[in-house]
Amino acid sequence: MNTSITWRLALAGAICSVVLPATAQADWPSQPVRVFVGFPAGSSPDVLARIVTEALSERLGQPVVIENRPGAGGVIGIQQMLVSAGDGHTFGTTINGPMTTAQRMMDDTGFNVAEDIAPVTLLATSPLVLAVASASGIEDLESFIAAAGAEVDALTYGSVGQGSGAHLTAELFAAEAGVSMLHIPFTSYAEVTTSIIGGEINAGFMAPSAAMSFVEAGTMNVLGITSSEPFGQAPDVPLIAGNAGLSDDFRAELWNGFIAPAGTDEAIIARLSAEITEILSDPEVQERMLGMGWQVAPGTADDMADRIAADTEMWGAVIDRIEAQ
Amino acid sequence: MNTWDSLLLGLSFALQPHVLVYCILGVLLGSFVGVLPGIGAMAAISLLLPLTFYMSPEAALIMLAGVYYGAQYGGAVASILLRLPGTPQSAVTTLDGYPMTQQGRGGIALFTAMVSSFSGSLIGIVVLVMLAGWLSGLATRFGAADYAMMMIFGLVAASTIGASRPAKGFAMITLGVLLGCIGTDVNSGAQRFTFGHAELLDGLNLVALAMGLFGVAEVIANIRNPERQSIAARIPLRSLLPTRDDLRRLPLPILRGGTLGSFFGALPGTGSTLSAFLAYATERRLARQPERFGKGAVEGVAGPEAGNNAASITAFTPTLTLGIPGDPIMALMLGALIIHGVQPGPMMLEARPEMFWGLVASFGIGNLLLILINLPLIGIWIAMLRIPFNYLYPAIIVFLCLGVYSVRGLAFDIVLVAGIGLAGYLMTLAKLSPALLLLGFVLGPLIETNLRRALLIARGDPMVFLERPISAGFVLASMVLLLVPLWKIWRRKRAAADF
């Protein structure tokens, strides 16, 4: 019974995919488009999504509605997108975690990235900066590595949780620099910041936008940035790559991307990808995103798929190392 | 710039017509959504956020802040008249507010809540203006060890609130702490009691828990008990006005609650929850007849209401001067500012004094408006109780489900609220205090996380709790609270033995 239904569905799908693409794209979008965001209204993934969907709705001639389904580091939003999938008008945005590391950190995410998700395009990337309290007297990467290397776990660092970008970035950095630091998990960058300034912990990788105002106030020093090129919002911060004995290709970035449920018409994905790329080329959009600490990163669906594959491998190796300890 | 100039700058800013309009809009909306059970400031601010993209950052902040503290006024209405607290701090208000309603003194309870909220906010504003610099540094002086011991002190101090017997109180706190364990453990990343449900990874939904334990449980209890359904119809009009005796009891609890609240509000985290519970515990300990509490004591409404409103004012200091939001709603407001390219942080007071002081001035204006609007409305709110229960209760349940659903948009949470409601009803039968369960639920995970974090940072040395002065102070205070009653019992026994 089951097989016969599956067969019929498959047959119907095959017929549709032969007959419909041309009309599907011509009519699309024929109804409001929904975009699931796995973070609450006002969070930075939400605001990035809103900047894009605002322009998208003008270009598509249909309302583009954001549905916030926060929880489990963005995983709930993707689950909810997949539940509502199938009408060709349901999409989502995601941060890197659910696409690259969540499968390793959670018992069951309820989806498989390779089978269930169709990448559309990256939206923006954000590097992290390594910050210490200015009271520590540490002013550059070399003296930081020297202090951290004095003995095992000589320094502590804060992150926004086990397996978070800030945690994995710090472990990647420590492995490359040949040091070992003690990880102290927090729940938000705000807590990490307070703890660094209060002198409770020594360091942390954090968003440039959050750290720079403390640098200006003279309470924090930032020692390096994890991007491969100087970053617009913090142009004076030196790259970690190629500095203090670290390799030239050191790069660790958070990213935000636009996704579709697997099975979405490829012509629709290509159209969306092209529209978003044009939106991201608008200097005003770029400036708004940069103000929040995000650098636009337009590209094709394939570029995003490559990024997912590369990051899954890179962070997977870091997680292997943490688990082996 | 001295304090006086700062205030004048703030006033001249906040009194500009377009800013004033947004302030009025914010407080009106806030007190309206606050009354609707479960639909609190969080939902309202999330909905308004996209609109603020088109406003100036100052106006946006002032409007959203108005919703935030306005909702506290409205929240008191639902807590006192219907036993529907949307937050742990308003759960404290139900402890004596709802019994007052049952005695036909609901109008007096509302009056007390409004006046205390207003006075508490004023105390918060005065403290904020006098000590802005000191308050903003407070958060960085508190480390993990200090937070852990402060919250343990809070639990110890509040442990007997609303419980018929101390053992029952401790049992409820423990149950709350256990429920708080559900979700992802911050320190290890392990998933506890989630049974494979991603919906539970971030823990139980607090709004669902509060609504189920109080609201749903109360509705079930009233359906079973026809006598309680008719109380509302007997309220005489004169009960809207407080007696001279009621008024005489208000000033000191308000002053104490407001002071406590101003201090704890400036600590990011659970400032306003802790201050409401501590204000209540303080009043009960100082009262000549502590047995009146839980049965409709006005001090039990005045202290906590003054406390949580003062806390909601000073809570803006860490948000704006450190960029550290104390709760999810503050995080939303921070988000709204960042969207406008304003980065709250240590430079805020210097870089945008008009915004900071304008906000402070708007607190004063907003609270004045709130009390002027809300006092005349008391009669109307009381009239709501005259709605026949077969219309009122289904409406309550619908609003409550809407409110719970609005937090995350998951049907899972509605099923959760139904289950919790049933458990809550069984708890009422056994005379177990849901307020203490909520306190344990909120503080438990924070105590655990901070305790383990402190030990991790100290490389496992427990002396860290005695070496840090703030932490040591709270340890000492907790010991005193625990030992004094034991010592009293011991002395009584010895006196009895001497005969």
List keywords for this structure.
heterodimer; A: 325 residues; alpha/beta; D-Maltodextrin-Binding Protein, domain 2; 2 domains; 6-stranded mixed sheet; 5-stranded mixed sheet; B: 499 residues; mainly alpha; two-stranded antiparallel sheet; 23 helices; 75% helix
Would you give an account of this structure?
By secondary structure, chain A is an alpha/beta fold. Chain A has helices at residues 2-19, 21-27, 44-60, 75-83, 96-100, 102-105, 113-116, 141-149, 165-177, 189-197, 208-216, 266-280, 283-291, 301-324; strands spanning 33-37, 64-68, 90-95, 117-127, 129-133, 156-159, 182-185, 203-206, 220-225, 253-261, 295-296. Chain A has a six-stranded mixed β-sheet, sandwiched between helices. A five-stranded mixed β-sheet of chain A has the order 7-6-8-5-9. In chain A, helix 9 links the parallel strand 6 and strand 7. The longest helix of chain A has 24 residues, at 301-324. Residues 1-7 and 9-23 of chain A have low confidence and may be disordered. Chain B starts with a helix and ends with a helix. Chain B is mostly helical and 499 residues long. Chain B has one domain (3-498). Chain B is globular, with a radius of gyration of 22 Å. In chain B, strands 1-2 form a two-stranded antiparallel ribbon. At the A-B interface, helix 3, helix 4, strand 7, helix 10 and helix 11 of A face helix 3, helix 6, helix 16 and helix 21 of B. Chain B: This is DUF112 domain-containing protein. Chain B: Keywords: Membrane, Transmembrane, Transmembrane helix.
